[in-house]
Amino acid sequence: MDRQTKSIVIKDRSTGTPYSVIVVFIVTAIVSMLIIWQVESRNQDSRRSDLALHAHNHASLLETLLNQSLSANYALASLVRAGDGEVQHFSAIAAKLHQHYPIVSHFTLSPNGIVSEVYPLEGNEVSLGFNQLEDSIQNAEALLAKESGLMTLAGPVALVQGGTGVIGRLPVFMDHNQEERFWGFTNVTLRLEELLRIANLDTLSNQNMAYALWKLSKDGAPSQLISSNSERIRSDSVDVIINVPNGAWLLKVAPIHLIFESGALALKLLLGLFISSLAALQTWLIISLRHDRAFLEDRVTERTNEIYQAESQLRATLDAIPDLLFEVDIKGTIHLFHSPKKELLLAKPEDFIGHTFDDFLPDEARVICYSALNEANEKGFSSGKCYSLEIDNQCHWFELSVSKKAASPDNLPRFILISRDITERKTNASSIERLAFYDPLTGLPNRRLLLDRLQQALAWNERHETKGALLFIDLDNFKVINDSLGHAVGDLLLEKVAIRLNAAIRKVDTAARIGGDEFVILLSDLPEDTHLTALHAERVASKIAQLLRNPFTLLDNEYVVTSSIGITLFTSGQASLDEVLQRADLAMYQAKNAGKNTICFFDPALQEQIDHNLELSRGLRLALDYNQFFLEFQPQVNREGALVGAEALIRWCHPELGLIPPNRFIPVAEETGLIIPIGDWVLKNACKQLHIWKSHSKAKHLTLSINVSSRQFSQSNFVEQIKACLNQYEIDPKCLELELTESMLVKDQNDVITKMLELSKLGIQISLDDFGTGYSSLTYLKRMPIKQLKIDQSFVKDINMDLDSANLCDAIISLGHSLSLEVIAEGVETLDQFEYLAQRNCDLFQGYYFGKPSSADQLLKLIF
Ligand SMILES: Nc1nc2c(ncn2[C@@H]2O[C@@H]3COP(=O)(O)O[C@H]4[C@@H](O)[C@H](n5cnc6c(=O)[nH]c(N)nc65)O[C@@H]4COP(=O)(O)O[C@H]3[C@H]2O)c(=O)[nH]1
């Protein structure tokens, strides 16, 4: 049958079994009964003929005994006739007769029916004179004999001399004048007991036979029971008529009804039933066995089919697996093999079986295969081990998966080894790796790989107590070349730079491109001595600078490229990866600041500042939560010296570092974004202060200006925040001034102007802080709703010494006034400065001359 189409037909053989068993039981029971019946019939017949034989034998014996014994009457009758009625010497003759008839009890002569002679006399004396014709018991049979003239058997009767006997009575007739005249009787008497004894009737009992000896009446009916060995004779008796003189006896012989006979029949019936049951059982067993056999056949078919299915499934699965599959033992001997890709084989498939890896694989691959086998032998499974093979001049990569097969303890362990061709994956992985870790333009490691190598270098330093150096290289005039000659040429230059960098370093070092024209060289495994390390790093940097200075030929022209190189040395545990990179970067900027084409080592002072900033940023995060900020207020006065307002200046009281000036922490807050919550805090506290002043009649006119950082101002909801604060503290918007710096106005002017217009609509005043230090432009001054210009204190400081500063202050005041803006000078420390500015019509003044930043209470003392 076809494997695919093979199906199982399992017949239902469960029905029919009980019927067959019942039929077999019934048929067997019937046959058994018939056999028993037949056997019983035969037994019956045989017993019956046996009975008949016994009955006839005993009847015949009785008849013979009687006839023979009673025939003695004829002898006696002859004697009577011969003696003409007289018998001489009767006793002697009778004695002689007795010898011939030993079973006769006694002989009697009864002339006219009266006993006159008896032999033997002894014991029978009493019978003498007994009249047979007149005895009421015997007279009927005596008369019968007389009248019939035939010998007649009388009895059994009770004899007068005692006991029971039968009497053969022969009537004797004498010729008298030619006339027959009755003389009397000759009698032969037999003791019944003796007769029966000799007739052996008792032996029937031994034959399990019952008998009954009856005397029959004239009409043939039993009239007197003579003898019997059983109370009841069965109706199926064998009856034999015994002809006795002038009468008949009947001998009935029947089997004695024995219990065991019916028991035997019942036993036979039971045996029949038992045999029937056995036959039925056998039938059931045969049917069951057949059924079981058929069931087993079905199961075998079913299992075979399943095995076929599983096998074809396995075969299809194996065919679908594009891998090489081997079954091998621990010695590498190949026992089974499967491969849909014949092109990946190092030998013909048939050559694999029975051979080991040693016969096909090169050393390296073989070692890996055995190591995978050993691993699988120990752990049950091995995966991920890879090896490569040269097939048709191409390098192919294979990955091994090995699993240990369950085996009996006597056998060597076997393994399923799958070898997967991962060449494509390897190629893809390496291109992905290239993309992920290498700069596509120059082929140099990118920033990620550099950091990885730096990490390894730090670890190496820690283990081997060595040092490393990082060189940050920036091409000084790359931008000019790129912009003037185009990006393609710029790219070409970068590629050539990369080649020269690689040429300048050892194999253990790394040259990376981390962006634009920025390259980094990682020098690892340098001596522990800092001086020597610095010397080596400086030498490499000089070599690189020199190599780069050699002209590059780009578009047939030669270009000289200079570079700024920053160097930092590192050991393990001192700094993080980013920090090391940052230090080299800083050093590079130092080199740039030093006039380019220079090599600079990282300045620890710079780093200290960075570290300090870092610490400040950590502290700033906690400062708000721990309420470490407070505001001071610096007075602002008019030309008359009257207090018109104040500038709110934030103060940070650090628990360990003490009072930290805003110039130190505000830039850090701006850089970290913390300026937003801090600015919010300042706004709220300034508004709170204005709210307090509102209740003082002499202070309610005071304005309060606050510094707003660029980041704070560029928040999309900045205006809403101001509005909410005004509402919350119910203050006059005119009293609140926002100080913005010039630099804030340059970026995203539309957004700045929109916000400024919204704020001025609210009534908020805007002041331009540090005016004169930035890119002041008349255009935006005109377009923006600014109320005030604040002259930067650096100009005020030198106003009396430096003409330029004085001129600048003059110009700012004139400009402000020409634009109808209020002008305020900050940093006024002396009377001369105040007078100069006042003469120039500066409107307001702020500076130590009028008061240093102080608490709100201190400030109000200036009024009261
Ligand atoms: N030598 C001298 N200095 C004078 C004189 N008069 C005023 N000053 C100082 O000049 C600075 C004026 O503030 P700024 O220009 O806005 O410059 C501020 C401002 O840019 C920033 N700042 C202060 N508070 C805040 C604030 O709440 N928010 C923001 N964003 N920045 C603030 O920190 C800067 C420095 O603030 P401060 O250290 O408080 O220094 C204040 C003030 O104490 C004087 O006669 N002589």
UniProtKB/TrEMBL annotation:
CHASE domain boundaries: 110-252
Domain GGDEF: 466-604
Cofactor or coenzyme needed: Mg(2+)
GO molecular function: cyclic-guanylate-specific phosphodiesterase activity
Domain EAL: 613-864
Broad class of enzyme this protein falls into: hydrolase
PAS domain ranges (all copies): 310-380
Pfam families referenced in this protein's UniProt entry, alphabetically: CHASE, EAL, GGDEF, PAS_4
Keyword Transmembrane helix (UniProt): yes
The enzyme's E.C. designation: 3.1.4.52
GO biological process: cellular response to nitric oxide; signal transduction
Statement: the UniProt record of this protein carries the keyword Hydrolase: yes
Primary subcellular site in the record, as a coarse category: membrane
Compartments where located: Membrane
UniProt keyword list: c-di-GMP, Hydrolase, Membrane, Transmembrane, Transmembrane helix
Name of this chain's protein: cyclic-guanylate-specific phosphodiesterase
Native species: Nitrincola nitratireducens
